[in-house]
Design brief:
By secondary structure, this protein is α/β, with parallel strands linked by helices. 40% of the residues lie in helices and 15% in strands.
């Protein structure tokens, strides 16, 4: 049983026990339904009619008020006498409120937030920049990749790989070859992959190898070499040619779609299709992008990221302050698309981060490093530059404020990370309690404090919120309403839920939630 739960609890609370409403619960109404969100434990519940009247009585609140009128302590028997609910319904509603942290019982909460949200201690993901050079000139390149730049020496790549495997206390690691365009340095990738296979076997560890490429250099020979080396392939493609070719262009300004599509076909012809990643700058294109990737390349799993204000993007593209709301509307159209697609085909798509955010609604797990408090800086990820520089995040490679030293000079990596003041300082600054806007946000434990890099690039400091926080505040509330009305949408949790729980447990979770919606029994809101 998770240690943060206050248990055991009886099926029916004794009349002599005391209950009190949790302060700072967020409220929102749609028709007869009232959404309650308890920020500190990332719990939520939808009430109607007499059930809402009971909570309103407890909290002294009405929808639209921002603070409680009182923090009155109620005895269960007195509350039951004041309520218009029958005994069975009263007990069920009180237990629903308790299990979702909307009330405390005898001074105790079902979830104790002070014992939740543990931070991962050591990185499991290591991202090596093989070069900052790139053969394309994408208008939103986040690092302004030059046409020519230093290539990571194969001997250096071997050294990085050996050290992260040997010196990590974890048994399962991910090593990603990145850039720039990493396939410009195939000898470096080969050296790193060969070293990983040897060292992982000697250490008895599991190491997953990945490469993220623009796809234009995926010849049959290169794909075969990567397959032999057991390197998973991810390809960046932004949808159909008219959308893709707006921003993913070569140095002469010509679109790259046909070359990228050929690279994807080359990978698919030699086995499973690659992982596909699209970057969106115009939110009106979300559905067209997803539909193209799904139907043209026959994938059911894809990632759709937003462009961000950094590198070349900051020089050539517009990033209006209100773009978060527009992106939320476009992003939610993906949910409509996924619903229509399963009705058409019977297949539930796996769209990141749609799957992840739905998972956050029914789980206290936060499997993705970018949506924790603090985010994964130095505790979940390390980035390495082509000259061996170590940085607290892949996206912060080259930024002095996240620099740990050079791998060729540093001592034991675990000891370095455990004692690095730059890591401790940045992690503290990215805790939701320490970011002013995040500290008072209802969605802070659903989303975390957001991306340290994006906050730094947009505001010039690590101490601010994610610049797209409006996006997250819109989508989490909307997802709650949609799941409340159609719990089967939880099947879009897909890979995250199944990884954490297994497919049978996911089915049980969804069934339990459906029963709770139909008021047959309360749902357990945790794993």
């Amino acid at each position: 049983m998770p240690s943060h739960l206050f248990l055991p609890i009886p099926d029916e609370l004794p009349r002599s026990w005391f209950v009190a409403a949790t302060p700072d619960v967020y409220l929102s109404r749609r028709g007869r339904d009232i959404l309650l969100v308890e920020p500190e434990s990332a719990s939520w519940l939808v009430l109607q009619d007499e059930a809402w009247e009971l909570f309103a009585l407890l909290s002294g609140r009405t929808v639209g008020t921002t603070t409680e009128k009182s923090h009155q302590l109620w005895q269960v028997g007195d509350l039951a006498d004041q309520s218009s609910l029958g005994k069975a319904a009263f007990n069920r509603v009180v237990m629903d409120l308790f299990r979702t942290n909307m009330i405390s019982v005898n001074g105790k909460r079902y979830f104790e937030p002070s014992r939740m949200w543990e931070v991962q201690a050591h990185p499991h993901y290591f991202n090596i920049h093989m070069t900052e050079a790139c053969n394309l000139g994408c208008t939103y390149c986040r690092v302004s990749s030059p046409e020519r730049a230093q290539l990571a020496d194969p001997a250096l790549v071997r050294r990085i790989v050996r050290r992260v495997i040997e010196e990590s206390p974890l048994q399962s690691l991910v090593i990603s070859f990145h850039g720039g365009e990493p396939l410009l340095n195939l000898p470096g990738i080969r050296a790193g992959a060969e070293e990983a296979a040897t060292v992982a076997q000697a250490c008895g560890k599991q190491v997953e190898l990945l490469v993220q490429t623009n796809g234009t250099l995926l010849t049959p020979e290169t794909v075969e070499a990567l397959r032999r080396l057991k390197v998973g392939i991810g390809v960046s493609i932004d949808g159909p040619a008219p959308i893709h070719d707006l921003h993913r262009v070569d140095r002469g300004g010509e679109g790259s779609y046909e070359r990228v599509a050929q690279g994807i076909r080359t990978v698919s012809d030699q086995g499973a299709p690659p992982g596909l990643l699209a970057v969106v700058h115009d939110p009106s294109g979300y559905v067209a992008i997803a539909d193209h990737l799904v139907r043209t390349f026959h994938v059911t799993s894809l990632r759709v990221n937003m462009s961000s204000l950094e590198g070349r993007a900051g020089e050539s593209l517009s990033f209006p302050a209100d773009r978060g709301a527009a992106f939320a509307r476009g992003w939610l159209s993906l949910l409509d698309y996924a619903e229509a697609y399963v009705q058409e085909t019977g297949i539930w798509l796996d769209i990141a981060d749609l799957n992840l955010f739905l998972f956050h609604l029914v789980s206290k797990e936060r499997p993705h490093m970018c949506y924790r408090s603090p985010c994964g800086v130095g505790n979940s990820i390390l980035g390495f530059s082509a000259d061996g520089g170590m940085y607290l995040c892949d996206e912060l490679v080259g930024e002095p404020g996240s620099y740990l030293g050079n791998i060729q000079e540093a001592g034991n990596l675990r000891k370095l990370l455990d004692s690095a003041s730059v890591k401790a300082d940045l992690m503290e600054r990215r805790r939701v309690e320490c970011v002013p806007k995040c500290a008072i946000c209802p969605w802070k434990r659903f989303h975390g404090s957001g991306c340290a890099n994006k906050a730094f690039r947009y505001f010039g400091t690590f101490g601010k919120e994610d610049p797209l926080c409006r996006f997250y505040s819109v989508i989490f509330e909307e997802l709650m309403w949609r799941v409340h009305r159609n719990p089967s949408l939880l099947r879009l949790c897909n890979q995250y839920a199944q990884h954490a729980m297994g497919s049978e447990a996911v089915d049980s979770l969804i069934e339990a939630y459906i029963l709770s919606i139909t008021q047959q029994k309360p749902v357990q809101p945790s794993l």
